[in-house]
Write a structure and sequence with these properties.
The structure is a homodimer of 323-residue chains. Chain A has 323 residues and is mainly α. The first copy, chain A, is built from 16 helices and two strands. Chain A has helices at residues 4-15, 25-35, 42-52, 59-83, 94-98, 100-118, 126-151, 160-185, 190-217, 220-223, 229-232, 238-246, 249-258, 263-276, 279-299, 309-320; strands at 87-88, 91-92. In chain A, α1 (4-15) packs across α3 and α4 runs antiparallel to α8 (160-185).
Chain lengths: 323, 323
């Protein structure tokens, strides 16, 4: 079995020689700009881990992992356009640097490139993998649409279950399908794949809660971005949706008022209200709840325990990270 | 053998039950809005004709044809955003009706849906077809990028060969690959596929010349849009690039001056200069030249002549159309 770090190294070695054509230079410079932003590569590594849970890692899994990472980067380029985000991972976004039209096209061409990697997958499993990939891709688009629609609403008008459904589509589904595709390549049966998919789903929700918590309460030095970035941009987070859900009429007014401010004043006021509503404690409890659900499904997968170790370590790392 | 009209009827029957999910309603309403604009369906019919050139039309060809038509519609949605086009086929564009973010996503989800149709293609030929499709998709994106870059240049700075290369990528490649995929499904060999691909390439160029000519010199009543739409929007067309290529210094100044005007005055002045430069005659000659090249490659395809009839009729229709 390989650790996250070992798989990451193997993946990067192959992925980084990703070759785009020379021309049109502007189009492929835009695509490369995104790929050079170096994400955590969680999804492709999940694909490799899903594969290694059932068999030795084969070439097909590396191709699928590359497809998944390209797909993820395609969504980031297009999401940043839709969200009008100036920065990502501390760097200028593709549309800010190259303009929206080229950014749209760079995303498109990256999605096509993702499918080109799938082409190399063994013909006998290709239809199933293509279907799983398409299904997930569609759901991720649906999640982004719901996210945008939620952004236009007042947070008190977003029921928690609808919010969790959106996060499931936007974040969890791709984690799940990464594991699922790896497992399909490894020859896993339906029952194991079902549990692996559910594992990814709950891991994704727990991951998002941790992400939202870090943005609000993490150490800005460690996370490498401004504290309360989500608050400053009025983003609908787990914390905010929950806060409005449990706030009484007076507290809601206070929250509304805090969001009228700007800068650090806004952040501090909202954080104080979150504290008063015990949101950090709630987030910790929820994160634990979803983590336990995830681990329950991992438990249910019928392979020897030692094979599950890298995934358990990954859960531990992702949900206790401070950056 | 089936005529264009017969194949269109068969294709529409299947394609129009294209089902998108109900929710999120706004996302899929946007996708449906595009599909309801009813194009000519040239590309999917070329795929069916490519198939029938070598064999009876099989289910795989209908799936590929649907994928191609969805891909084409995806490019139209995204191109319209990039070009800031308010209308397409006389109707309000997707981004004008639903906003840019939803239009970007509707395009994305349509591209994914295209790949979902490919999933149904027989496993033994799927990798080749996926590769051909991806290749074409990438080239079409490159063509759109070049088109945008050309739009930012003065027409005198666009060499005709670079312009033809752009049109080849943006228009011809998809016609070629539609035929190629149909032929692959029909079991065609490399040599026949090569000639069919070249046929599509030259057909595309001739088609674009006819399109540009119609926009400038066609009967507005028949083409259902304003005469000189391309001139009004300063679009780089075959006619314009050629006009600048052959104009002397004085005529270039006259062209530059004409483009400073607006409305019908602009159209009439530019058209008069086109006439003085014999652009309509040149366009007719070029169209014939590329049509002959296309027909030469059709000739070279080793199947009995009667099988080629629908394609010959299609060439005749496309290049002599008045609307």
């Amino acid at each position: 079995m390989h650790s996250f770090r070992e798989l990451l190294e193997q993946f990067e070695k192959r992925f980084n020689i990703q070759e785009f054509p020379e021309q049109p230079a502007r189009l492929y410079d835009a695509a490369r700009h995104m790929l050079h932003m170096q994400g955590k590569r969680i999804r492709p590594i999940l694909c490799l881990m899903g594969n290694e849970l059932f068999d030795e890692i084969v070439e097909d899994a590396f191709e699928a992992a590359a497809a998944i990472e390209l797909f993820h980067n395609f969504t980031l380029i297009h999401d940043d356009i839709m969200d009008k985000a100036p920065l990502r991972r501390g760097q200028i976004t593709v549309h800010e640097k190259f303009g929206e039209p080229t950014a749209i096209l760079a995303g498109d061409v990256m999605l096509v490139q993702a499918y080109e990697h799938l082409k190399y997958i063994s013909a006998e499993i290709l239809p199933d993998i293509l279907h799983a990939f398409n299904q997930a891709a569609r759901l991720v688009c649906e999640g982004q649409q719901l996210d945008m629609e939620f952004e236009a609403r007042h947070p008190s008008e977003i029921p928690m279950d609808a919010y969790i459904e959106m996060i499931t589509l936007k974040t969890s589904v791709l984690l799940s399908v990464s594991l699922q595709i790896g497992a399909l390549i490894g020859g896993a049966g339906d029952r194991n794949i079902h549990h692996l998919y559910e594992f990814g789903k709950y891991l994704g929700i727990a991951f998002q809660i941790q992400d939202d918590w870090l943005d609000a309460f993490g150490d800005p030095q460690q996370i490498g971005k401004q504290q309360g970035g989500d608050i400053l941009s009025n983003k609908k987070t787990f914390l905010l949706v929950k806060a409005y859900e449990i706030a009484d009429a007076h507290q809601r007014q206070q929250l509304d008022a805090a969001f009228q401010h700007n800068g650090q004043q806004k952040v501090q006021q909202v954080l104080a209200l979150f504290e008063a509503l015990h949101i950090p404690q709630w987030a910790e409890t929820e994160k634990k709840k979803y983590t336990e659900r995830a681990l329950h499904h991992l438990e249910e997968i019928a392979v020897i325990s030692s094979r599950k170790k890298p995934l358990e370590e990954l859960v531990n790392y992702l949900l206790n990270r401070t950056s």
